[in-house]
Design a protein that fits this description.
Elements: H1 3-32, H2 37-42, H3 54-61, H4 65-95, H5 103-112, H6 122-132, H7 139-148, H8 150-162, H9 166-174, H10 179-190, H11 192-208, H12 211-216, H13 225-235, H14 240-271
Helix pairs in contact: 1-14, 3-14, 4-5, 4-7, 4-8, 4-11, 4-13, 8-11, 9-10, 11-14, 13-14
Length: 276
């Protein structure tokens, strides 16, 4: 086999794989811009005869995609931010504050949370949320989302913090910094790659979450995008163009976020594994 073909074959396989993965999404985009179901059925993968951008306007306004979209956006953003701050503080206490004698056992206890599937806790979470009187409010989602992300978040941030040289802490303490100052002025800025990684992972997890949002929220005005899309599908099941437009609204923000920040994700996941 010639060298050029031998080297190019893996790339060809990857291109075919990418094409297979993107094909359904291309179908969704083209269908969302077509005028009727007949056009979608007769020419599913072809360009629209006429680009009907009104489908996106109608889906955004008439089908209340805008309401579901912003509910998901602020829930995802707020829970991810709070989760990052809590995880960073916990990881700092467990990895950099050596005077905590039980830090090793606390760290192991936190990581046990990764072994428990989230669905196993569903009934307990429902009963707790109901007793707190926050059922059918966004607090019913914010608290489980934030708490559920802590184990993996602490693991990633702690792995990064362990790789920070201890000399930095010693120099900061000599300069008179307290533990709080050390955390906010020294450790936190250095840990930004891991913090960005944790934020993105938590954001995407909340953005795509369906089970809790479906059972804890019944008010239509409070629904998130995944649960709102189910009602949207039932209401507009005969209009495939509108359904496809709604799918694009739910997928594109995630694709954009990952496309621009994928390097940060990789850096945050790998940086803690190498000590300089």
């Amino acid at each position: 086999m010639p060298t050029a073909i031998k080297k190019g074959f893996p790339h060809f396989i990857l291109l075919v794989y990418v094409g297979v993965i993107l094909l359904p999404f291309v179908f969704i985009i083209f269908s969302s811009l077509k005028e009727s179901n007949i056009e979608i059925a007769e020419n599913p993968f072809g360009f629209p005869v006429e680009f009907v951008y009104e489908n996106y306007v109608e889906a955004w306004v008439k089908a209340k995609i805008s309401v579901y979209f912003f509910n998901s956006l602020y829930l995802s953003f707020s829970s991810a931010i709070v989760g990052v701050l809590l995880s960073a503080g916990t990881a700092f206490a467990l990895t950099r504050m050596r005077f905590i004698s039980a830090s090793k056992w606390i760290y192991q206890f936190v990581l046990v949370g990764m072994l428990i599937p989230g669905n196993v806790l569903f009934i307990a979470q429902y009963l707790l949320v109901n007793k707190l009187g926050i059922l059918n409010t966004h607090w019913a989602l914010f608290l489980p989302y934030t708490a559920g992300a802590l184990p993996i978040s602490v693991l990633l941030i702690a792995a990064f913090m362990k790789a920070i040289p201890g000399e930095l802490e010693e120099a900061a303490i000599v300069d008179g910094l307290s533990s709080v100052g050390l955390f906010f002025k020294i450790i936190l800025p250095i840990t930004i790659p891991a913090l960005v990684t944790v934020f993105i992972i938590n954001f995407l997890g909340v953005w795509n979450e369906y089970l809790l949002a479906n059972f804890f929220i019944s008010k239509d005005a409070l629904r998130t995008l995944p649960t709102g899309m189910v009602g949207f599908r039932d209401s507009f099941q005969t209009n495939y163009a509108l359904i496809c437009a709604g799918i694009v609204y739910s997928v594109v923000p995630v694709l954009i976020l990952y496309a621009f920040l994928q390097e940060k994700i990789i850096a945050g996941l790998t940086a803690g594994g190498v000590k300089g």
